[in-house]
Records
---
Amino acid sequence: MTNAEKQSGERMPLRPADQLIHKAAWLYYTHGLRQDEVAQRLNLSRASVATYLRKARETGIVTISTSSQLYTDEALARRLEDAIGLDAVWIVPEDREALDPSTEMPVVAATVFQELARSGDRIAIAWGRTVYHIADVMAYADRQNVTVVQLCGNLGAPYNYRPDQCTTEIARRLNAEGINFYAPLVLSSERLAEELRAEPVILEQLKSIATCQLALYSVGGIEADSHLVRCGALSAAEMAEMGKAGATGVIAGQLIDAEGQLVDCDYNRRCISADLDSIRAIPKRLMVVEEANKFEPLVAAIKGRLVSHLVVTTSMAQRLLSRWEGAPA
Amino acid sequence: MTNAEKQSGERMPLRPADQLIHKAAWLYYTHGLRQDEVAQRLNLSRASVATYLRKARETGIVTISTSSQLYTDEALARRLEDAIGLDAVWIVPEDREALDPSTEMPVVAATVFQELARSGDRIAIAWGRTVYHIADVMAYADRQNVTVVQLCGNLGAPYNYRPDQCTTEIARRLNAEGINFYAPLVLSSERLAEELRAEPVILEQLKSIATCQLALYSVGGIEADSHLVRCGALSAAEMAEMGKAGATGVIAGQLIDAEGQLVDCDYNRRCISADLDSIRAIPKRLMVVEEANKFEPLVAAIKGRLVSHLVVTTSMAQRLLSRWEGAPA
DNA sequence: CACGTGGGCTGACAAAAGTCAATTAAGTTG
DNA sequence: CAACTTAATTGACTTTTGTCAGCCCACGTG
């Protein structure tokens, strides 16, 4: 089955070529025949069968998934869950002979995400480097009736991990429908933002976020080289200003304070993005944090109940734990 | 991770040996390293890695699943869904160069079952040759928090597809908890059956059936060589008698009439089994019918709304379709 | 402390799967 | 309708994987 066909939503009959891929996959993976046996049965060369099988894997007709339990296993993860009250924590080790954490974390996150995503779900996707990395390493799967929605408005050109790209790419991987959000993330005036938010198309989509079953995002920092500044949503000076005014992190393009509440500021009022209560209404909020310098933003997001499932490095986990054990929330 | 450990319910830390299996599986399947690379990384021989990977597949640490769409694909399946109002139909072809349908049907059913079963589900399992065949070919998977419950009481010795065995085997395959039902299917007196049904343990379990998300069963016939007769629950003569009195098929050990309603008879009153309304309350009722001679019982089960998902042969599908198109329900 | 004893590991070989350049088929355009 | 373009298919070759007899080492035992 072709992506285009699946994307169109309607369940379509398989084209002859896709039928063959399905049959080959079925005989090989489900019945355990050898490639030459499959070839014989379908009157093909073995080489073709090998090609078909690769396609079957690439398109999600067959799915090979590995348990991510390895990363939930450490005692540290358990303690963190208990201390902070999260549903589940995955810890990516940085030390010893381990894999490079900078490549490993997105892989773990992608696996976890796939485990959490169910057929029929609506899934909200934020943006950012982390999310894009995850999309990039995510396995193809063929989930039925999944809808992927974009959590916040878009920004202009420079980045290749724009919100709509994150959404689209993940939708493609799941063979799901991707719903993009055609509004800018930040507008130049509060009034304009308000009017745009009231537009039926936008309103509809913003409302639909609260009905998602799963969200995937990271949290942003507020440094001069943070994501928002580099995208030009805010100047470095403005950002510094906001930091003084209590901003601690960024969720779906919006500034939050140290308690994980929306900062009451002009910038936030000019944003078009999911409101925090909608996000909190999503049962599974999967947060993935790669950078060590996102400690304070992460703490804020946790305090603001914006996280239910968490993927972090060992050292970040340790810092979180000592913070909570030192001063329980 | 060992089955014993998983079975115990509590999430336990992995033993060192199981850790290795997980790591090998992760590197090989998730990262796509070659076996020799994995071996190098984990300081093992490649042969050991191969062994570990086999174990990982066998225990459900990695899962390889194939889309069953091939069997939903035919137009016939679509027409049947529409005509009868089922959620989904899978059709196993019998003709042409196809696989032997008698082995293929359980394989398809097992695949469909795995697709329908979600983590966290409660799953009700009936018994019979068909169900046991399905259990037998079912792939191993490692679902979290699944509970498998037995739909009806047990019978005595002769069969090796006793209700408790079906339940236990499927629970083992899913790495789930299996809850057996320690009561006979039929008692010698109505009074005794009633008293037993009122026992807290039994009562509890019977009530819990309505809260399942998925049921797996077949439908029984009422011939002299039918399941119930061969198990000694009913004599051939009694069964013939019941047939005259309107019994058309058997669901979870109980006789149903042509409309899929419980027959009001002594035998049924002596049964300890899920009541039909509890079964109807289960959202996904997967019925699998292998034998051509179960046409009338199947029609009865469908009329009684005991089926939402169906796996049948092409010829059975055709017969169903002509019945419904001839005289819509 | 020598003696099994069994689980896990290895090396070497056989079997299976992956790859790619060449070829054929199918479709498209001037 | 011939020429060209593109995609599908294959045979031959290489690489990777599966297997199993034998080995080694840790551990319990007489």
---
Amino acid sequence: MELTTKEKIIHSSLALFSEFGYHATGVRKIAKDVGIRESAIYNHFKNKEDILTHIIDKYFDSTFLLKDNINLNIDKPKSTLLDIAMSFKLLSYDKNSDKFFRFFIIEIMQNKNVRDKYLDNYLEKQINALSSLFFEMMQKGLIGSSDPISLAWEFLSSLFFYRFQISVFNIDRFQSSNTIASSFEKHISIFWNSIKNSN
Amino acid sequence: MELTTKEKIIHSSLALFSEFGYHATGVRKIAKDVGIRESAIYNHFKNKEDILTHIIDKYFDSTFLLKDNINLNIDKPKSTLLDIAMSFKLLSYDKNSDKFFRFFIIEIMQNKNVRDKYLDNYLEKQINALSSLFFEMMQKGLIGSSDPISLAWEFLSSLFFYRFQISVFNIDRFQSSNTIASSFEKHISIFWNSIKNSN
DNA sequence: GTCTATACCGAGATAGAC
DNA sequence: GTCTATCTCGGTATAGAC
């Protein structure tokens, strides 16, 4: 697979941004990594920030969105939840997705554009989708009655943290990520055990 | 309370670092915020990185460590867990601690020194302490038998995420943090409901 | 589309007067 | 301990030849 220069620039930039941060990464470094001169960068991107924007637009979805063939079969509620958790786990152990994740965590804290994307395009959608799912389950009597939004937060929180933690381990303690490899499944087990209707 | 120049530098630096990041914050900006010239900074710190090091050393503990008067009364297991959660909540809604938290999240991803502190001085200790607590509870038959380390991860994960999320909301959607204000308590309720021994 | 050369700026940092 | 003045370096970005 032959990458165009533009693709190479994006690829190198992302690798450097996710390791050193956006500000600490110079255009010279990017150019060197690609194998061209700084000036050649500007044939493909307006400026440095333009590279950042392209990366965000191109990779945000693939970094955060779960596989969309999740079986939302309401009659098998526990395995539906497990499916979602496994989708998180898949992303966590995907090398590329993990790199983007680190990059985005940094940018969420510093870049309003990324932060808004995270809050509106990701978090809110996830919470809404999960709330609906739990609401349905309650109506069918599969789980006890309570606030579906709170359940959604509780369900998501652990999955997100495990992904965060694996991402931190993966920087320079790759082996340690094994210690929480089974946490995604364990979460479903504990969570389901708490909310299920036991009649 | 009169702050020394050195303290003022640390204070201003932290505010700027946590808002714009370490690399995006110049020594000139810090000096201006303090009300002195750049050169005067160097009477107090060797260089810019030296300021960073001092901040980390001075504030890491107060950012992450829970209040140490938590009552680890094993005979009231649920309220012990609630105490821990409330300690998290307290830190989340403390304005200063919240600022440091954002700063440290960024640095965890980019700075090996901070990352090691997070992993060794914070995370491992927390997991160990919680594991011991759950182990004791199992031995006393207060909760069902399972892997105490997994329980510790599951318990901590939600609390950490809620803190993370409140910190993100607090940047420019202060109002939204209310939506998860009760999540800390809710977490204890759901978690305890799952692990308690019901005999 | 990439190169060389260069402009320009702001960064971190130092010397020495006060 | 702070100031002014200044240095050097590396950053982003552009002009114009090939």
